[in-house]
Specification:
The complex is a heterotrimer. Chain A is built from 6 helices and no strands. Chain A is an all-alpha fold. A two-stranded antiparallel ribbon of chain C has the order 1-2. The chains are: A mainly alpha, B alpha+beta, C mainly alpha. Chains B and C meet through helix 1, helix 2, helix 3, strand 7 and strand 9 of B and helix 5, helix 10, helix 11, helix 12 and helix 13 of C.
Chain lengths: ~200, ~325, ~650
């Protein structure tokens, strides 16, 4: 593993260039804006949660085994994503690839389950046009799902670039940023899980 | 030189303003009831406080401009080492705080006071106001009569207006009697007003509601209690009854003239949608939960897609 | 699938017809476009346009693009305003009918706030901020181009509604249920939602970009507490943007879902909440007011200090008061609907929080006044606009405090009193600030000085017209005239005041024309700014040549205190010897084509969704995503070095010591 000899001591590769540092900092701020975005969606959800218009409420719809499995998949993927970055830091292409692919598979599994859940709800005449509650539910959970989808494409894209170019300051920065993004989605899911699903079934 | 032209222009505008003052005694500045009077007093108090600020800043401003303008005699100007002054900062932070406290206290007092009847010892009258595209409907639940685009109230009697809307929001505003309140679909709000004397006051909608919003002007006729009672009796005797079909027709977008009815149908406008159609709660085949009170309102023969199919484009 | 791909539902009126005004606009748009195409082709300027402007990532050029677009939008919004004033000049006029009037006041509001004021200020930030903090560019130059082109795409989309499909007509606030599908079907309101959404992305990206730039790219020695006030205000504004704009994104998205896909966020059926729109809109909307006012405050601070030839009075108090204002800006939104029945407790709390804003604002005004104290005030045009700001903003501010008193607001709300108030604040604060900033930075942008005489004429016409226009509106407001009326009956005592206001509005128009004429004139006859420091400036941007070289500074300056350039000049005058640092090769970003391509796809997507042609909308989004993927795969070798020789040559050509 390469280490720099600056006075600051060890610096990971993605932080070595000025550009890398700026972009990672900017990305943190972007995630701040994302937090506001999701907070707003959470707020609309809680305003409308009881507006079921005579239709089903969360209690009628949320199935513990589905969202528990979803949670398990996504939390595990966050862990494996962390491992992938650890192997990147150790300059191990093989470790990075293995853990990234596992992360992707877990993410994909999560996504498929969510899509099935949505399809099931629509089937039950509990789609987003059914009531204000369901509009808010689909929009909030769907926005998270859309983020996961984009995340999967992004991780794949970065992976291809890494395979082509190896670990460079640029590619390692990209890996690091996708990692941040992935963990962020995990954190959002923890809120979704606890305040929407868990409170919904209680 | 240019500066002077500017001052002349500003002076001219001020002069114009002052000359117009005599004609200002209409609308908000011509309060004709206790609610408007309360608000008028608050407005005047705020104008006094703000005038102090205005004069102070303008005097300081003009002083600085005149005293420190660049002159040909001070070419040798050397920048003074003046950075800040703690005491000045404290002063011009404290004075606004004091002024704001002086304004905030009566503001809060009035805010709470206006929630209640302006004449608590007197028996109030209730009038239900509904705004629809683009008209005002006034129902008198105690008298059982209805008027459209005008309202008659007894003078010196507190009036509790209960406000709601069919379709877009409007705002019910009679400046000479008091401030406004929104009319909102699906929820009822209220506004207390009272007229001191018999007279006619103009009201209008203050919130944009579409094409003919501009024409949502109406008259409030304040009359003595005995005239009011005679008018009600007369309406009961002579005016037509309003059927549900007539009411539905009235809700359709458009302009109508003043109307008077000796009765009105029992329609809960809070259960109408944006287009004045009843909000129907559709049945859900897979519905296995229990929601309590909403159930009784259900009309099972309809589905939501029937009443607003234009929502669904996919 | 086939159904999805080839289903083009046409709205009732695709091209807006039936009105000579619109026909005229359509013809002139077509003619102007043809003329531009012809000129570009005839003079073989396509390559130049692509290389120098469409693909530029240079903050100075992006700034110019922003400024050009906002001046154009100021014109468009101004024409809207004059049309409205003409319609209202006398009672019962039929110059415009209700439908047209409703569209015009809606586009006037949206354009002035989102497509004029904000891009104007972001343009000035682009022009000045990197120079002011001693940087070579913003943190993310390519993203900066994305910001501009997203804004441009949103702005274009919003503006074509005038001729294709019809403009939105539910007011710039677009309250539901009026703006919902049930009461306002058709493309107009979709234009509002999608145009703002696309432009909003650009703004959010700008916010992030400037925050990172200011926090991370300041010249050595420039601590936060040595930053000029315009940089401070931009920093604070960026933070507000980052916290406020996601709320707008969501509000617009939810209403779009309601309108296009039958969701129930704001509808009465399905249990939606129309009032939630008002809340979401103003949770963004009130901070938005400060997004457009704080940068203006920053500009005024620079200008007062420069033309009074004195250090800004109470620098620390100025910064803290801006921080206080930005915090409070998120805590006052309910004052936009005191009359919506929130109850006495909520109204009282928001009354007081609103009044509190007067305290930091007052502190700022007094500090500005004391900056003049013992100074030597030169009445150059930028200073005139800055000085003019004080009394007019004062009028706006004190009427703002009056409006903050909830019970009194019951009498002002939605009346012309309110209209007069926020125009006094937004014109007196923001527009004065924009023009002051433009005139101040004009030599830095173009290398020419504006004509002082014409500049003063423009100022006095505008100021006189402005007061003449809006003082009467306070009065008709108190006389019961409500906003958004397309006409009014005679006999209510409103006629004279309205006529005066209309005359005033035309005075402002004349001021604007003189301003624009002055710009054109200065290009041909303006005095050249050879020093780079025409105003005896105090901050680093005046250290560079006018216009600044592509790389801004041949050598990054070292900052020793507040008003860094002023200190350097002082040291030089005292005869202290300057070290001549060595010029090194300069690292610069290459031009990028993807921002404009991506925004073009975004425009296509938006246009598709406006007409609910989902396949076009999806195609545009797909194009956008593909462009992003392409950019990610080509994110290598995006920079180059300017060799020392070339830097020296450029510096010598600008008459600088090397």
């Amino acid at each position: 593993m390469e280490t720099t000899t600056t006075t600051k001591g060890y610096q990971p590769m993605e932080y070595k260039s000025e550009e890398g540092r700026l972009k990672i900092f900017g990305f943190w701020i972007f995630l701040g804006a994302e937090i506001v975005l999701f907070s707003t969606l959470f707020a609309t959800y809680f305003v409308l949660v009881n507006q079921t218009a005579g239709g089903p409420s969360g209690k009628d719809l949320f199935e513990i085994h589905i969202f528990a499995t979803e949670t398990f998949l996504l939390l595990t993927s966050s862990f494996t994503c962390g491992l992938a970055i650890l192997y990147m830091r150790r300059n191990s292409m093989k470790g990075y690839l293995i853990w990234t692919i596992i992360t992707l598979l877990l993410g994909l599994g999560f996504l498929i389950m969510e899509i099935e859940e949505f399809a099931m709800l629509v089937e039950m005449n509990a789609g987003p046009t059914r009531s204000a509650f369901l509009s808010a539910f689909f929009t909030l959970v769907g926005t998270h799902g859309l983020h996961v989808t984009l995340g999967i494409f992004w991780v794949i894209g970065v992976m291809i670039q890494v395979i082509k170019r190896g670990f460079t300051p640029v590619t390692s920065r990209k890996i690091f940023m996708t990692g941040l993004y992935w963990h962020f989605l995990d954190v959002v899911w923890i809120f979704l899980f606890s305040t929407i699903y868990l409170l919904g079934v209680v | 030189m240019r500066l002077k032209t500017g001052y002349v222009a500003i002076f001219f505008t001020m002069a114009l303003l002052l000359s117009g003052c005599s004609s200002l005694k209409t609308g908000v500045l011509n309060p004709q009831g206790p609610v408007a009077k309360e608000q008028y007093d608050l407005i005047m108090w705020s104008i006094i406080l703000m005038s102090i600020v205005f004069v102070a800043v303008i005097v300081l401003f003009v002083y600085m401009l005149v005293k420190y303008r660049a002159k040909s005699t001070d070419e040798e100007y050397v920048e003074p080492e003046e950075k800040e002054n703690k005491w000045l900062e404290v002063i011009w932070t404290t004075i606004p705080v004091v002024i704001i406290i002086a304004l905030a206290i009566p503001t809060v007092k009035s805010t709470f006071k206006l929630e209640k009847s302006p004449s608590p010892n007197q028996k109030p009258i209730t009038i239900q106001v509904t705004s629809a595209d683009w008209k005002w409907i006034f129902k008198y639940p105690e008298q059982g009569i209805e008027t459209v685009n005008y309202v008659k109230i007894p003078a010196n009697v507190p009036v509790r207006f209960e406000l709601n809307a069919v379709g877009p929001m409007n705002s019910f505003w009679v400046p000479e009697l008091g401030g406004q309140e929104y009319t909102m679909p699906g929820m009822t709000m209220y506004l207390w007003l009272e007229a001191d004397n018999p007279g006619t006051y103009i009201g209008r909608s203050a919130n944009f509601s579409g094409k003919d919003f501009t024409h949502m002007q109406f008259n409030v006729h304040s009359v003595t209690q005995s005239d009011f009672d005679a008018w009600v009796a007369n309406v009961k005797k002579t005016a037509p009854k309003q059927t549900e079909a007539m009411f539905k027709e009235l809700l359709k977008p458009g302009l109508v003239k003043e109307q008077t009815y000796s009765s009105y149908p029992d329609v809960d406008v809070n259960k109408l949608d944006e287009n004045g159609k009843p909000i129907l709660e559709p049945t859900t085949p897979h519905h296995h939960g229990t929601t309590e009170e909403t159930k009784e309102e259900k009309k099972p023969e309809n589905k939501s897609t029937d009443s607003h199919s234009h929502n669904h484009h996919h | 699938m086939k159904d999805f791909l080839f289903n083009f539902k046409m709205p009732e009126h695709f091209l807006v017809t039936g009105d000579p005004l619109i026909y005229g606009a359509q013809v002139s748009i077509v003619l102007a476009s043809l003329a531009i195409l012809f000129v570009l082709t005839y003079y073989k300027k396509w390559g130049w346009l692509w290389r120098e402007w469409l693909t530029t990532v240079d903050h100075k050029k992006i700034g110019i693009l922003y400024l050009l677009a906002s001046l154009l939008m100021l014109f468009r919004g101004g024409v809207d305003a004059l049309l409205m004033r003409m319609q209202l000049s006398a009672p019962n006029l039929n110059f415009l009918d209700a439908d047209h009037y409703n569209q015009i006041f809606t586009t006037h509001g949206v354009i002035m706030i989102l497509f004029m004021a904000m891009p104007f200020l972001i343009g000035l930030m682009n022009v000045a901020i990197p120079l002011q903090i001693g940087a070579r560019d913003v943190a993310f130059p390519a993203l900066n181009a994305v910001s501009f082109w997203m804004f441009a795409a949103g702005c274009m989309l919003f503006n074509i509604s005038f001729v294709i499909g019809g403009s939105p007509d539910a007011g710039w606030t677009s309250y539901t249920p009026l703006a919902g599908n049930q009461l306002d079907p058709g493309p107009g309101q979709n234009y509002y939602l999608l145009g703002l959404q696309i432009a909003g992305i650009g703004t959010l990206v700008s916010g992030i970009n400037f925050l990172v730039t200011i926090l991370k790219m300041r010249a050595p020695g420039m601590t936060l507490w040595r930053m000029p006030l315009f940089s401070w205000s931009t920093l604070i504004t960026s933070v507000i943007i980052i916290f406020a704009f996601p709320v707008l994104t969501i509000a617009l998205a939810l209403l779009t879902l309601d309108r296009l896909f039958g969701f129930h966020f704001f509808t009465l059926a399905g249990g939606g909440s129309p009032m939630m729109w008002a809340n979401l809109f103003w949770i963004w909307g009130h901070p938005e007011v400060y997004i457009v006012i704080l940068p203006a405050f920053g500009l005024f601070s620079e200008i007062f200090s420069t033309f009074a030839r004195k250090k800004l009075f109470g620098y620390g108090a100025m910064v803290y008061s801006m921080l206080a204002i930005s915090g409070l800006s998120f805590l006052v939104w309910v004052h936009h609907f005191f009359t919506m029945g929130s109850g006495p407790w909520i109204n009282s709390i928001f009354s007081i929080s609103t009044m509190l804003i007067a305290i930091p604002t007052g502190v700022k005004v007094f500090n500005w006044l004391f900056t003049l104290h013992k100074g030597r005030i030169e009445f150059k045009t930028p200073m005139l606009w800055a000085l003019g700001f004080i009394p007019v903003f004062l009028v706006g501010g004190i009427t703002g405090v009056m409006l903050a008193a909830a019970p009194a607001d019951y009498q002002y709300h939605n009346s012309y009193f309110l209209i007069a108030h926020f125009h006094y604040v937004l014109i007196g604060g923001t527009v004065y600030g924009c023009i002051a900033g433009l005139v101040y930075y004009w030599p830095k942008i173009t290398g020419f000085l504006l004509n002082e005489r014409l500049g003063k004429w423009a100022f006095w016409w505008f100021t006189a017209g402005f007061n003449m226009c809006f003082i009467p509106l306070y009065i008709v407001g108190l006389k019961g005239m409500t906003r958004r009326m397309y006409t009014y009956p005679a006999g209510l005592g409103w006629e004279t005041w309205n006529l005066i206001a209309t005359i005033g509005a035309f005075g402002m128009g004349i001021g604007f024309i003189i301003l624009v004429w002055n710009m054109i004139y200065s290009f041909r006859r303006g005095e050249k700014d050879t020093t780079g420091d025409p105003w005896n400036g105090r901050t680093l941007e005046w250290m560079t040549s006018s216009p600044a070289a592509e790389y801004n500074f041949a050598v990054i300056p070292k900052v020793k205190g507040l008003d860094a350039f002023h200190l350097m000049k002082k040291e030089r005058a005292e005869g202290r010897k300057e070290e001549t640092p060595e010029i090194k090769p300069i690292h610069m970003p290459k031009s990028e084509g993807f921002p404009v391509v991506m925004s073009a796809f975004m425009f296509i997507s938006g246009f598709g969704f406006v007409f609910e042609w989902m396949q076009i909308g999806a195609f545009g989004l797909l194009g956008c995503v593909i462009t992003m993927i392409w950019r990610s795969f080509n994110d290598y070798d995006r920079d180059y070095y300017i060799p020392v020789e070339e830097v020296k040559k450029t510096e010598l050509a600008a008459g600088r010591r090397v």
